[in-house]
Write a sequence for this structure.
C-alpha cells in the first residue's frame, strides 16, 4: 500500500491498542469583538497541555462546540450532546464529542462589558440592570475512535459529578479518561471504569474495514425515503456536492455517517464536515465535491448555491438544482436495488393486497437490524457493479511494493456499459482510485466484500428472479454486518451515574470549577511511562491471497451480447481470411463486403484478430501485394468501429499484428501494415497506450517469476510435473500474492536483485513502446508538413477511417486525429510532435511504475533517435511504394450516345454514392446494394451520364447507368459525405451533388486519380452547357452542327435584322395604332443553315415592311381583303395548330377573301399577325364578329402583357365559350366595374377604354344563342327548357355548382356536399340530393348573402330555376378584384379566387424534389418521405388547379361562358384552360388532340418555356418553375381516375414531361410564337429535314415511335361519346406520380428511345448461343434496376411482340401493330353476339372482371342485349352497339380510333427506295425463280413478292443481319443468257442468298444500293 491515502485508522494498525480519548477540553463563552452582538468560544483549559507526538491538538475546536454561534440565553437550556468530525491535514478524522450546559453569567462581568462598549461609542446611557443571562460552556473529548455512546457516558459522568457534587475528584476521572486504552479491532470486549464507581463495556468491531453505523442508515431512509437516498448515493459516487440540513446536530452527524457507510467499499475522499460552524459557511462555495451538514437556521444562506444538492432531513426532501444531472445506476441494477430496499423497509407491502394476510405478519426487524439489512442491499449492489474487477487489474511491480493499475476501458467493455452514464464516472472518480490502491494488492487481509465479489457472484445471478432468495441472502449479509458491530450478544450492563432530573434548572449553581492541571498531567505521565515499559502488542496480521472470483466473461455471456447469427458471420470471416492466405483472391473478393459488414459485430472483430494471429504464428506474415491490400482493408474496417478507448481490446489485439504483416517492396525494403492503418483515433489516445503498456509489463513480470519457479523446479522433477500445468495457469495476481508472501523471508541481496530485474523489465518495455508509438504515429510521407489535427474531429465515426491509394502501396495516414491534444505549434516538423507525445507517455508510465531517474533520462535521450531512425526507413518505403503498378481498376464503360450527341468531356473516374432512395443501396426493397458504384461520369452536349458497376462484387457484373439532360440540371453543389460510405473513397477528393428536375440525383465522389482541376473543368463545362447564351445555343439547335459551329467566328446575334424590325414594328404599332395599318411584304424565312453567316436580310428589297397611312377607315372592317403580299404569311399562319382547331370547333374559317356570313358570332382576326398588339399571342385570334380590329388595340391595353380576352374553345352542345386573357391592369379594372348609372362627364381616355372593354364582353355574351332567345335576360328557366332537356336532368346538376364554387373560393358549404369534390366521377347523378340554392352563384363566391328580395322584386323563396345566372363568369385573382361590387344589371359576374403564383410553384417543386429524391439517407425513410411530401404542398396545388378547372367545366356545361383571367395569362391560366378543354372535349384525349391542345394553348399562346425552365443564361436567376409539368401531373391524376377515356398511356405523359425540359427537341424551347418566328422555327418543319433521324419536333418523333411501338397507346381506351369528365380533386384522391420516384439503373431514363433499344438487343443475342445448358425461363426483376414494364410487359404488348417474332421467322412482312390491334377488336366485336347468352368471349384480350358497376376504372360494363339477357362486353371502343351507350342519344358522334390511324395504313407506295426483278435461288435443290424485290431504307430490309402487283410479302431479309455482298457464280438451273458478272451473293448471319440480275449494270446497281443502305446504318 502506498502511504498517501491510508484509511483513517491504518496508522494505528501497528499498535493493537489506542487511547480512548486524546484530549479533554473545557470551552466557555467570551464576549466577541466590540460592536458584534455574538460572543465567541474560548478554550479555558485543555489536557494534556502538551500535544501528543503522534496526534497534534486539532485547531478551531471552539467553533464546533456551538456550530450556530456563541450566544447568551435568557434561560437555562437542558444540556446537549453531539459529535462533530474534524479532518486533519493527513485526512485523518477526529471525533469531537461536545457536551454543552449553561451557566449563569455574573452580572458584573456583563455590565463592565457593556460599559466599555458604550464609552467607546461616546454615548452615555442610563445603565439598565439586565435580566439574568446564561452562557454556554462545553466539555469536549477529542478522539480518533468513533465510540459515540462511550463518549456520551463519560462526559455525562463528569457533568454529574460537578452538578450533583459527588465526592469524586474530577481530576481523577479526567485523568483516567485520558489514559484509558482499548483495542482497536478484533472483536475484543473491554470493561473500563473512570474511578467514580462506574462501569462501561466497550466492544470493538471484528473487522475495522467495515464501517460502524448503529441505526444511522435506517434513520436516513426513514427521513428521506428510498428514491431520495438512492439519488444522494449516486450523487456522492459521481462526485457531486451534497449538503444536509437539519435543526439537530446529532442527526446531521448520523446522516453523514450513514451516507459514508452506504458507500462502502469505496471511501469518500473529499471534504467531509458533518457539522459546519456558522463562521465557516463560505466553505460551501468551494469548487470541489463535499458532504457537509449545516444547521437549518442557515437554510436561507444555502438557497443561492447553484450546484449543490440539498437534502433537508427534517422535511424529507432532496432538491437537485436544474444545472445538475445525476447519473443513476444502470438498469437492471437500479430496479433490483429499489425492490430489495422496499422489501427491507416495508415488508408489509407484498401482502398488503391479500384477502387473507398470513396471521403472523412479518415483524419488521429492529431498527439496528434493519440498518444492517439496508447496508447488505448496498453491499450486494457494489458486488454486482464491480463484479470481476480483479480481472482488469494490471500489476506492474511486485517488489518492493505492489504497483497496480486498473484497466477501465476493458472493464466497461466487458460489462457492456461503455455507453452507460454512471459506471464510467464512478471509475474515473477519486474514491475508486483509492479502492484500487487499497484493494488492488493481491496479498492482504480480506473482508466481507472481497468474499462477496469472489464467491457469491454466481449465487447473486441465480437469485435475481426470486424475491425470497434475495431476501435470504440479504438477511445473511446483515447478520455478518450486525455481528461485526456487536460481537458479544450478552453485554454486561453499563453502570454510569446520571444527574438527577431537572438539575440544570437549579437556581444557585456554582460555575464549573477550574481543574488542577498538575494532578491530571501527573496521572497521564504515569500511564505513558507504564505503556513504554510494557512489550509492544503486535496485532497478528491475517494476510492471505485475495480471491479473484470468476472472470467477467463467464458471468456476462448470458447477456446476449453475442448475436444469434454470429456463428455464420464468423464462418464468413474465417473463410475470407483463409482464402486470402491461400491466394484465392476472387473468392476472397466476393466475401470481402460481407466481412466488412460483419465487422460491426464485436465477435467478428475478435475473430478477425484471432485468425490473423494464428497466421502470424504460422510464419505467414509476409504477404504479396493483393493479400496485403485485403488484410489492411479488413484491419481498417475493424478499427473503424472501435472507439478511441478501445473497450473491447480490438486495437490492442491488432497492435502486434500491424507490426508483423508486411510485404516486400524491393530487396531490403519492407512495408509493414502499420503504415496503412494509422487513420484511427485510438492510436492518439494516451490512455490506450498506457493500458497496452501495463498489460504487456504485467505479462513480462509474470513470465519473469514463472521462469524463476521453473528453474527451481528442475531439482524436484516429479513435483514440477505435478504442479506444471497449474503454474502455467496462474494469473499474474496469484503469482504476485505468492511473491509478497515470500518477500519478508528473502535475503536482502535477493530482494535487491528482484527489484532490479523488475525495473529493467519495465524499462525495456518502455523502449519497445516508444518504437511502437513512433510506428503508428509517424505518417508514411513525413515530408508533408501536416499539423496533427486537434480534437476538433469530435466523433470517432466522422473520420474517414480507411482508404487505398492509387498504387497498391496502401494508404498513408494523411493526418492525425488526436484527442489527447498535441500542442498545435507553428513548427512544421511532424517528428517534434511525435517525440513530444512519446515523452509525455514515457514520463507518466515510468514514474508510476518506479523506473529510476537515470533510466528515465536515458529514455528521453533515446526517443528522438528512435523517431529519426523510423523516419528514414519510412522515406525509403514511401519512395518504393510510389513505383508500384497502380491497382487494376474496372475499365470504364462508354455510354451509347444519340445521333448528333457529342462528347464534351471524356469519362472522369468517380464513385456514385447512394442517396436517400433506399432501394439502390440494398435497402427496404431488398436486393443487393447496387450503390455505391464505381465508374465514370461523362459530359456530352445533351446529357450528364454516369456509367459503372456496383462496388459490391456480388452484383459486380451488372451495369449501373444514371443520366439526365444537362438542361434539366437544377442544382449543382459541392458536398462532404458525413458517413464513411465506402472504403474506397479518400478524404480529400472533390464530391459533387447534381440534382435534375427529371428527378435524378447524382452524388459523385471523384476518384483520387482525377485531378481537382479536371473536376473544376467538369463543373465549368457543365454550367456553361446548362445556361447557354441564348436559346439557339441549346442542344436542339446545335445538334449535328457542333463541328461547324466551332470553326465559325462567334456570331453575336442571329438574325439581327429581324430583331430590329420587330422592335421597330412594335414601337410604331403602339404609336400609330388606329391611324396606321401595319402591312408587310412577302417574307419567307431562309432555311436555318443559311443563317450562320451574318447576312442582313434588308439588302433584299422584297423584305421591306411598309406602314401605309390609311385615311379610309373602311379598310379596318372585317371585309377588308388581305393584300397579296400578306398571303404567304397568312397561309403559314393558317397551318398552325390553333387555326386547325378553330376550324374543327366551327369558330370560323379563313378563306382568301375573308368573306363569311354575317350571322357567325365569331371571326378569325388577323390583327396580331405581325405580333404588334401582343407579342405572346399567336398571329390569328378568335374575336367576336362585331368587334373591329382597331378597338382590339385599345382593349388590349387594359390587360397585362396586352393579353386581351380571346376565345379558345366552344362547347358544341351549349355553345358556351371559354376565353382566356391576362389579368386586368388596375386602371382598367376600375373603369370596367364603375357603376353604370353615374353620369359620364366626358369621354376621357379611361372611360372610352372601359366602354370598349364592356362592349367586347357584351359582344361575347351576345354571341351565345340562348342569350338572344330569352330576350337578353338570362333567366335559367327559359334556358333550361330550351337547351338542357336532352341532357341528364339539370335540376340535379344544379346544386353541385354552388357548393363547388364555394369550395374554390375557400368558403364553407353546409349542404350535403360539404366535403365537395367527390361528386365528379360517378356517372349516376341520382345520388345527388336535389337541395336548392337560394343564393346567387356569384355572391356566394364573394361570400355575401343575397338581399331578401331579388333585383326584380320577386320574393327570394322562388325555385332556383328562375334564379339569376350570369352569362359570363370572369374568373380572376382575389387580390386584383378587391373592392369590386357586383352590378345586378350586368350579365357578367366576377368570381374572385385565390391562386398561388409561380414563385410558390417553384418552392413547392424544390421541396417535392427533395422529398422524392432525398440527398441523404434518413433515419425513418417512410415517415420522412411522407412528411416532406406534405410540406411541399405540391398535391395541394394540384388539388387547387383541378378544383378550379372542374368549376369552369361545370359552368360551361350549364351554358355560361367563362373568361379565365389570372396572373399574366400564361401560367395558371394556361393550366386551367387546357384542363377544362381536356375534361370537356374527348377529342383532346386522343393523341392527335392532345398534341393540338399543347401546341395551341401552351406554345402558340406563349407559355414562357425558356423562362420557366431557366433554359438560358438570362433566365438563370429566375430558377426552374415547372408549370407545364404541373399540368401534366394534373392530366396524370385525371388519367388515373378515368383510365378508359384517354387514347395515350401514362408513359406518354412521362415522355412529354422528360422532354419538355430536356432541350433535345425544339418544340418546348422558346417563350412564344413570335420568338420562334424570329429564329425561323415556325415554318421550317415543312420539307426542310436533312436527316430523318434529327427530329426537331417532339411530335414528329412521337409519331414515328408510335408507328413502331404501342408504348404510348392505352389499351383500356374505350371512350364514351360526349363524355365530360369530373375528377375528384381532394388531396386524398390524388396519387404521387411514379414519374417522380421510379428509376431504372440498368439503362438510365427510358425516354431516349434509341438508347434504350440499342442496349436491349445485344443482351438477347449473347444469350442465344448458350443452348447447351438448360435455359431457365425465370427472370429476376430488381426494384429500381430493371425496367419493369419491359421485363414483364402487359398481356397485349406481349402478344404483339410474339406476333412480330413469328412474322420474322415466317419471313412475312410485319404488320403494323395498330392494324393488328384494330383487327383483333373488330373480330372480337363480331364474336360477341354469336356467343350463347351469359358467357364471355373466350378470345377477349382483357381479363373479364365482375366489377361492372364502375366502368370508369375497368374496361368492362354491362350491355343490354336484345334478348334481355346480360352479356359482359369487353369492347375497348364505343362503337360496338347502339345499346352500349345509353347515355348519349346519338350514335357515332366521334370518328373511330382506327380512322385516326389511317395515316399508318400500309399503302402500296410504302417507303420503297429501290425495286425491280431479281432471280433468287431457292433453298437446297430448289430452282431459281424471278421475284419482285423491294429495298426499303426506312425499315432497313429487303422484301420480295411473287410479282409486282402482289400485295402479300413472301419474305424479308433484314439488312442488319447482312455480313457481306460478294460476286457469285452460276449454279445448276441458273437462268441462261445471263453474264457471269450479273450473279451476286448476299451473306447474312443465318444463311447465304444467291441472286442474279438481268444484266451486269442492274446487278451493280443493286449491289451499290444495298451497300449504301448498309453504310447509312
Amino acid at each position: 500500500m502506498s502511504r498517501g491515502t491510508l484509511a483513517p485508522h491504518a496508522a494505528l494498525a501497528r499498535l493493537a491498542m489506542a487511547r480512548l480519548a486524546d484530549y479533554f477540553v473545557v470551552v466557555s463563552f467570551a464576549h466577541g469583538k466590540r460592536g458584534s452582538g455574538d460572543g465567541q468560544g474560548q478554550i479555558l483549559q485543555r489536557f494534556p497541555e502538551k500535544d501528543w507526538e503522534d496526534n497534534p491538538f486539532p485547531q478551531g475546536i471552539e467553533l464546533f462546540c456551538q456550530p450556530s454561534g456563541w450566544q447568551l440565553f435568557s434561560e437555562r437550556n437542558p444540556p446537549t450532546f453531539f459529535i462533530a468530525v474534524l479532518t486533519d491535514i493527513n485526512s485523518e478524522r477526529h471525533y469531537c464529542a461536545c457536551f454543552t450546559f449553561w451557566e449563569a453569567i455574573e452580572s458584573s462581568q456583563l455590565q463592565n462589558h457593556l460599559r466599555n462598549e458604550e464609552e467607546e461609542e461616546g454615548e452615555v446611557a442610563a445603565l439598565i440592570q439586565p435580566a439574568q443571562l446564561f452562557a454556554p460552556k462545553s466539555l469536549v473529548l477529542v478522539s480518533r475512535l468513533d465510540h459515540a455512546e462511550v463518549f456520551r457516558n463519560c462526559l455525562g459522568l463528569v457533568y454529574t459529578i460537578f452538578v450533583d457534587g459527588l465526592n469524586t475528584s474530577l481530576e481523577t476521572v479526567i485523568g483516567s479518561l485520558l489514559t484509558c486504552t482499548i483495542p482497536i479491532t478484533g472483536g475484543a470486549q473491554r470493561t473500563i471504569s473512570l474511578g467514580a464507581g462506574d462501569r462501561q463495556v466497550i466492544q470493538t468491531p471484528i473487522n475495522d474495514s467495515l464501517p460502524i453505523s448503529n441505526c444511522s442508515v435506517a434513520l436516513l431512509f426513514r427521513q428521506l425515503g428510498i428514491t431520495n437516498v438512492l439519488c444522494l448515493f449516486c450523487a456522492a459516487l459521481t462526485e457531486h456536492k451534497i449538503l444536509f440540513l437539519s435543526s439537530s446536530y446529532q442527526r446531521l452527524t448520523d446522516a453523514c455517517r450513514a451516507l459514508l457507510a452506504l458507500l462502502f467499499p469505496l471511501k469518500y475522499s473529499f471534504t467531509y464536515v458533518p457539522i459546519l460552524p456558522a463562521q465557516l459557511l463560505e466553505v460551501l462555495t468551494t469548487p470541489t465535491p463535499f458532504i457537509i451538514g449545516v444547521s437549518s437556521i442557515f437554510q436561507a444562506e444555502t438557497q443561492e448555491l447553484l450546484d449543490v444538492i440539498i437534502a433537508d432531513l427534517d422535511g424529507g426532501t432532496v432538491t437537485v438544482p436544474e444545472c445538475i444531472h445525476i447519473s443513476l445506476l444502470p438498469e437492471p441494477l437500479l430496479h433490483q436495488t429499489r425492490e430489495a430496499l422496499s422489501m427491507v423497509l416495508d415488508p408489509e407491502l407484498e401482502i398488503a393486497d391479500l384477502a387473507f394476510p398470513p396471521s403472523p405478519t412479518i415483524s419488521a426487524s429492529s431498527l439496528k437490524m434493519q440498518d444492517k439489512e439496508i447496508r447488505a442491499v448496498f453491499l450486494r449492489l457494489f458486488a454486482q457493479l464491480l463484479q470481476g474487477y480483479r480481472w482488469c487489474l494490471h500489476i506492474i511491480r511486485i517488489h518492493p511494493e505492489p504497483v497496480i493499475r486498473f484497466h477501465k476501458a476493458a472493464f466497461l467493455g466487458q460489462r457492456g456499459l461503455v455507453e452507460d452514464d454512471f459506471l464510467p464516472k464512478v471509475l474515473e472518480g477519486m474514491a475508486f482510485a483509492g479502492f484500487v490502491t487499497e484493494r488492488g494488492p493481491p496479498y492482504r487481509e480480506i473482508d466481507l466484500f472481497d468474499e462477496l465479489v469472489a464467491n457469491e457472484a454466481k449465487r447473486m445471478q441465480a437469485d435475481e428472479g426470486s424475491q425470497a432468495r434475495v431476501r435470504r441472502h440479504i438477511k445473511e449479509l446483515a447478520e455478518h454486518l450486525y455481528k461485526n458491530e456487536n460481537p458479544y450478544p450478552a453485554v454486561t450492563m453499563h453502570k454510569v451515574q446520571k444527574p438527577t432530573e431537572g438539575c440544570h434548572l437549579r437556581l444557585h449553581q456554582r460555575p464549573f470549577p477550574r481543574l488542577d492541571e498538575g494532578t491530571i498531567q501527573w496521572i497521564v505521565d504515569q500511564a505513558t511511562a507504564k505503556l513504554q515499559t510494557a512489550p509492544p502488542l503486535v496485532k497478528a496480521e491475517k494476510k492471505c491471497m485475495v480471491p479473484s472470483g470468476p472472470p467477467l466473461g463467464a458471468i456476462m455471456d448470458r447477456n446476449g451480447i453475442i448475436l444469434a447469427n454470429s456463428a455464420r458471420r464468423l464462418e464468413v470471416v474465417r473463410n475470407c481470411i483463409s482464402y486470402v492466405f491461400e491466394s484465392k483472391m476472387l473468392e476472397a473478393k466476393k466475401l470481402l463486403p460481407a466481412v466488412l459488414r460483419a465487422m460491426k459485430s464485436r465477435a467478428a472483430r475478435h475473430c478477425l484478430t484471432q485468425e490473423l494471429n494464428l497466421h502470424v504464428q504460422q510464419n505467414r506474415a509476409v504477404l504479396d501485394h493483393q493479400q496485403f491490400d485485403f488484410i489492411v482493408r479488413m484491419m481498417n474496417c475493424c478499427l473503424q468501429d472501435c472507439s478511441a478507448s478501445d473497450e473491447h481490446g480490438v486495437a490492442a489485439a491488432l497492435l502486434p499484428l500491424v507490426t508483423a504483416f508486411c510485404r516486400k517492396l524491393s530487396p531490403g525494403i519492407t512495408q509493414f501494415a502499420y503504415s496503412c492503418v494509422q487513420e484511427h483515433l485510438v492510436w492518439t489516445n494516451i490512455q490506450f497506450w498506457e493500458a497496452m503498456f501495463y498489460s504487456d509489463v504485467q505479462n513480462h513480470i509474470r513470465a519473469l517469476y514463472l521462469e524463476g519457479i521453473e528453474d527451481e523446479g528442475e531439482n524436484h522433477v516429479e513435483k514440477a510435473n505435478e504442479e506444471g500445468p497449474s503454474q502455467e495457469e496462474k494469473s499474474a495476481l496469484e503469482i504476485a500474492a505468492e511473491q509478497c508472501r515470500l518477500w519478508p523471508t528473502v535475503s536482502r541481496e535477493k530482494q535487491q536483485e528482484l527489484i532490479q530485474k523488475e525495473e529493467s523489465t519495465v524499462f525495456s518495455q518502455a523502449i519497445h513502446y516508444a518504437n511502437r508509438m513512433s510506428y503508428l504515429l509517424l505518417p508514411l510521407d513525413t515530408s508533408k508538413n501536416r499539423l496533427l489535427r486537434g480534437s476538433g474531429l469530435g466523433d470517432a465515426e466522422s473520420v474517414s477511417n480507411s482508404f487505398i491509394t492509387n498504387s497498391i502501396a496502401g494508404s498513408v495516414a494523411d493526418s492525425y486525429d488526436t484527442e489527447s491534444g498535441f500542442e498545435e505549434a507553428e513548427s512544421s516538423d511532424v517528428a517534434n510532435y511525435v517525440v513530444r507525445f512519446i515523452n509525455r507517455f514515457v514520463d507518466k508510465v515510468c514514474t508510476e511504475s518506479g523506473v529510476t531517474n537515470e533510466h528515465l533520462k536515458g529514455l528521453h535521450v533515446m526517443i528522438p533517435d528512435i523517431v529519426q531512425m523510423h523516419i528514414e526507413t519510412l522515406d525509403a518505403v514511401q519512395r518504393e511504394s510510389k513505383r508500384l503498378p497502380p491497382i487494376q481498376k474496372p475499365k470504364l464503360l462508354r455510354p451509347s450516345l444519340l445521333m448528333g450527341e457529342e462528347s464534351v468531356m471524356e469519362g472522369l473516374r468517380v464513385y456514385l454514392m447512394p442517396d436517400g432512395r433506399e432501394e439502390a443501396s440494398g435497402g427496404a426493397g431488398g436486393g443487393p446494394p447496387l450503390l455505391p458504384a464505381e465508374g465514370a461520369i461523362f459530359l456530352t452536349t445533351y446529357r450528364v451520364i454516369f456509367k459503372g458497376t456496383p462496388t459490391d462484387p456480388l452484383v459486380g457484373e451488372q451495369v449501373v447507368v444514371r443520366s439526365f439532360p444537362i438542361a434539366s440540371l437544377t442544382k449543382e453543389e459541392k458536398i462532404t459525405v458525413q458517413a464513411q460510405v465506402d472504403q474506397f473513397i479518400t478524404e480529400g477528393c472533390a464530391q459533387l451533388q447534381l440534382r435534375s428536375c427529371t428527378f435524378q440525383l447524382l452524388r459523385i465522389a471523384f476518384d483520387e486519380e482525377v485531378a481537382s482541376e479536371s473536376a473544376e473543368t467538369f463543373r465549368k463545362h457543365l454550367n456553361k452547357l446548362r445556361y447557354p447564351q441564348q436559346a439557339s445555343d441549346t442542344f436542339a439547335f446545335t445538334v449535328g452542327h457542333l463541328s461547324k459551329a466551332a470553326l465559325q467566328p462567334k456570331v453575336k446575334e442571329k438574325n439581327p435584322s429581324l430583331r430590329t424590325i420587330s422592335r421597330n414594328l412594335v414601337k410604331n404599332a403602339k404609336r400609330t395604332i388606329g391611324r396606321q395599318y401595319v402591312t408587310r411584304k412577302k417574307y419567307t424565312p431562309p432555311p436555318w443553315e443559311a443563317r450562320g453567316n451574318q447576312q442582313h436580310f434588308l439588302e433584299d428589297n422584297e423584305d421591306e415592311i411598309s406602314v401605309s397611312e390609311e385615311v379610309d377607315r373602311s379598310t379596318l372592317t372585317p371585309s377588308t381583303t388581305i393584300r397579296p403580299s400578306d398571303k404567304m404569311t397568312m397561309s403559314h399562319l393558317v397551318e398552325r395548330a390553333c387555326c386547325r382547331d378553330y376550324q374543327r370547333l366551327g369558330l370560323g374559317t379563313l378563306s382568301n377573301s375573308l368573306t363569311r356570313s354575317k350571322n357567325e358570332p365569331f371571326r378569325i382576326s388577323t390583327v396580331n399577325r405581325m405580333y404588334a398588339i401582343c407579342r405572346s399571342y399567336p398571329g390569328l385570334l378568335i374575336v367576336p364578329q362585331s368587334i373591329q380590329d382597331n378597338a382590339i388595340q385599345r382593349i388590349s391595353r387594359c390587360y397585362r402583357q396586352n393579353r386581351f380576352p380571346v376565345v379558345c374553345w366552344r362547347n358544341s352542345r351549349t355553345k358556351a365559350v371559354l376565353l382566356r386573357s391576362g389579368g386586368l391592369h388596375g386602371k382598367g379594372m376600375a373603369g370596367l366595374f364603375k357603376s353604370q348609372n353615374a353620369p359620364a362627364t366626358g369621354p376621357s381616355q379611361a372611360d372610352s377604354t372601359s366602354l370598349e372593354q364592356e362592349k367586347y364582353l357584351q359582344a361575347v355574351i351576345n354571341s351565345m344563342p340562348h342569350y338572344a332567345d330569352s330576350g337578353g335576360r338570362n333567366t335559367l328557366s327559359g334556358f333550361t327548357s330550351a337547351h338542357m332537356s336532352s341532357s341528364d336532368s339539370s335540376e340535379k346538376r344544379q346544386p353541385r355548382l354552388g357548393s363547388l364554387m364555394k369550395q374554390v373560393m375557400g368558403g364553407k358549404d353546409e349542404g350535403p356536399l360539404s366535403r365537395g369534390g367527390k361528386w365528379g366521377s360517378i356517372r349516376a347523378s341520382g345520388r345527388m340530393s336535389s337541395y336548392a340554392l337560394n343564393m346567387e352563384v356569384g355572391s356566394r363566391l364573394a361570400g355575401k348573402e343575397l338581399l331578401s328580395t331579388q333585383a326584380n322584386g320577386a320574393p327570394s323563396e322562388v325555385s332556383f330555376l328562375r334564379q339569376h345566372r350570369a352569362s359570363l363568369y370572369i374568373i380572376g385573382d382575389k387580390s386584383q378584384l378587391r373592392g369590386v361590387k357586383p352590378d345586378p344589371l350586368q350579365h357578367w359576374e366576377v368570381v374572385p379566387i385565390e391562386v398561388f403564383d409561380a414563385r410558390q410553384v417553384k418552392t413547392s417543386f424544390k421541396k417535392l424534389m427533395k422529398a422524392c429524391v432525398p440527398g441523404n439517407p434518413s433515419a425513418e425513410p417512410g415517415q420522412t418521405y411522407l412528411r416532406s411530401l406534405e410540406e411541399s404542398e405540391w398535391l395541394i396545388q394540384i388539388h387547387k388547379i383541378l378544383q378550379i378547372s372542374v368549376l369552369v367545366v361545370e359552368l360551361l356545361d350549364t351554358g355560361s361562358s367563362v373568361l379565365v383571367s389570372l396572373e399574366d395569362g400564361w401560367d395558371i391560366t394556361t393550366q386551367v384552360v387546357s384542363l377544362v378543354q381536356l375534361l370537356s372535349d374527348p377529342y383532346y384525349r386522343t393523341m392527335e388532340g392532345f398534341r393540338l391542345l399543347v401546341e395551341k394553348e401552351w406554345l402558340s399562346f406563349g407559355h414562357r418555356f425558356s423562362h420557366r425552365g431557366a433554359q438560358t443564361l438570362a433566365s438563370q436567376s429566375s430558377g426552374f418553375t415547372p408549370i407545364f409539368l404541373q399540368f401534366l401531373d394534373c392530366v396524370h391524376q385525371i388519367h388515373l381516375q378515368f383510365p378508359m377515356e384517354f387514347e395515350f398511356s401514362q408513359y406518354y405523359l412521362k415522355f412529354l414531361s422528360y422532354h419538355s425540359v430536356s432541350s433535345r427537341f425544339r418544340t418546348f424551347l422558346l417563350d412564344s410564337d413570335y420568338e420562334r418566328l424570329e429564329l425561323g422555327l415556325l415554318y421550317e418543319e415543312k420539307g426542310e429535314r436533312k436527316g430523318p433521324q434529327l427530329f426537331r419536333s417532339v411530335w414528329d418523333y412521337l409519331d414515328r415511335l408510335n408507328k413502331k411501338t404501342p408504348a404510348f397507346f392505352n389499351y383500356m381506351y374505350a371512350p364514351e361519346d360526349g363524355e365530360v369528365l369530373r375528377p375528384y380533386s381532394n388531396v386524398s384522391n390524388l396519387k404521387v406520380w411514379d414519374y417522380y420516384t421510379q428509376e431504372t439503373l440498368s439503362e438510365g431514363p427510358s425516354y431516349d428511345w434509341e438508347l434504350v433499344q440499342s442496349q436491349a438487343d445485344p443482351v438477347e443475342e449473347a444469350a442465344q448461343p448458350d443452348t447447351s445448358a438448360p435455359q431457365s425461363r425465370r427472370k429476376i426483376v430488381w426494384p429500381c434496376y430493371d425496367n419493369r414494364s419491359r421485363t414483364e410487359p402487359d398481356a397485349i404488348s406481349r402478344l404483339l411482340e410474339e406476333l412480330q417474332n413469328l412474322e420474322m421467322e415466317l419471313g412475312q412482312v410485319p404488320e403494323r401493330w395498330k392494324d393488328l390491334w384494330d383487327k383483333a377488336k373488330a373480330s372480337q366485336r363480331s364474336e360477341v353476339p354469336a356467343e350463347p347468352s351469359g358467357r364471355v368471349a373466350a378470345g377477349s384480350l382483357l381479363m373479364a372482371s365482375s366489377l361492372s358497376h364502375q366502368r370508369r376504372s375497368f374496361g368492362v360494363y354491362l350491355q343490354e342485349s336484345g334478348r334481355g339477357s346480360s352479356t359482359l362486353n369487353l369492347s375497348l371502343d364505343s362503337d360496338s352497339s347502339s345499346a352500349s351507350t345509353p347515355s348519349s342519344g346519338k350514335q357515332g358522334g366521334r370518328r373511330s380510333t382506327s380512322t385516326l390511324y389511317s395515316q399508318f395504313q400500309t399503302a402500296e407506295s410504302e417507303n420503297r427506295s429501290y425495286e425491280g426483278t431479281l432471280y433468287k435461288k431457292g433453298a437446297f435443290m430448289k430452282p431459281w425463280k424471278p421475284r419482285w424485290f423491294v429495298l426499303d431504307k426506312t425499315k432497313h430490309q429487303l422484301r420480295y413478292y411473287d410479282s409486282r402487283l402482289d400485295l402479300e410479302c413472301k419474305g424479308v431479309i433484314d439488312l442488319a443481319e447482312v455480313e457481306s455482298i460478294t460476286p457469285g457464280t452460276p449454279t445448276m438451273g441458273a437462268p441462261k443468257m445471263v453474264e457471269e458478272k450479273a450473279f451476286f451473293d448476299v451473306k447474312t448471319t443465318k444463311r447465304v442468298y444467291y441472286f442474279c440480275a438481268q444484266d451486269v449494270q442492274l446487278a451493280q446497281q443493286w449491289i451499290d444500293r444495298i451497300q449504301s443502305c448498309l453504310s447509312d446504318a
Summary: Residues 853-883 form the longest helix (31 residues). The mean pLDDT is 74. The two ends are 95 Å apart (CA to CA). The CA atoms of residues 1267 and 1274 lie 6 Å apart.
